[in-house]
Amino acid sequence: MTGRTLLLAALVVLNLVLMIRLLRAAPRFAGHRRPTPGDVVLGFVTAFFDTLGIGSFAPTTAAFKLRGRPADELIPGTLNIGTNLAGFTETVIFVTAVLVDPALLVCMVASAVVGAWLGAGIVCRLPLRAIQICMGCALLIAGCVFAATNLGALPSGGEAMGLGGWRFALAVGVNFLLGGLMSAGIGLYAPCMIMLALLGLNPIGAFPIMMASCGLLQPAAGLRFIKSGRFAWGVSVGLSCGGIIGVLLAAFLVKSLPLVALRWLVVAVVLYASGAMIQSARRPIYA
Predict the structure, then answer these.
(1) Alpha-carbon gap, residue 262 to 227, rounded angstroms
(2) Of 175, 222, 262, 277, which is least surrounded by CB within 10 A?
(3) Are 199 and 175 in contact (CB under 8 A)?
(4) How many structural domains is the chain composed of?
(5) Looking at the domain assignment, is residue 22 inside a domain?
(6) Is residue 26 part of a domain?
(7) Residues 74-111: tens digit of each pLDDT
(8) Is 57 left (phi over 0), alpha (psi -120 to 50) or beta?
């Protein structure tokens, strides 16, 4: 069995386990808000642009803050569980279509999964204010990355479809950290793509790596969030339903979009949400 086949097999098994656990958890959330059309539309839109490389965590978090739900402490878990099905679909599409070095792919994905599993255990125990500060800083960083991308201040990458030596080891180590940060709601796509570009990887080669990393680490982290109950069940289901449609439409029908203009729009929305999240953290919490 090749590394690519093994990765896809692990992807299917892990996602099946997550879906079973999510469905079994449904009775615990019987009295909570059910999925709404707005949740489905949000999942569709963010997954659509996620497939094109913009990322979904920052825009989804911004939308959560704009509409005032779910509660801030539920956002990391909701992001990891709700965008998981879209991440699964993206992984299957890009891992089979783009032939990046299998050793680099498998090792980077494995390190991200371990980082996410450990990180989710920490995030589940964080107090509300710590989560608000982490999310606010993450959104601020994401907005700056989008702006730098539009201004051409970030590297465009090389031609290689694999890395060796210290570059290989550094990429695997950094992806472990990025996997842990994903559990706190900090998206992996942009930093992973930038890091691989700095190391000389072809930009197209980053897509299967970052998408497979998310495709496996999200269910790993999601299992811990389901156990803790720190996620919004209805919103997660709505995001999942809309997300898979958005991925398929973007992957197979869209040929080109004005991504620079869209990124500037995302910058504005994300920076607003960052300010709102940090402002929430500054408010006193009464018992």
Answers:
(1) 36
(2) 262
(3) no
(4) 1
(5) no
(6) no
(7) 888 898 898 888 888 888 888 887 778 888 888 898 89
(8) alpha
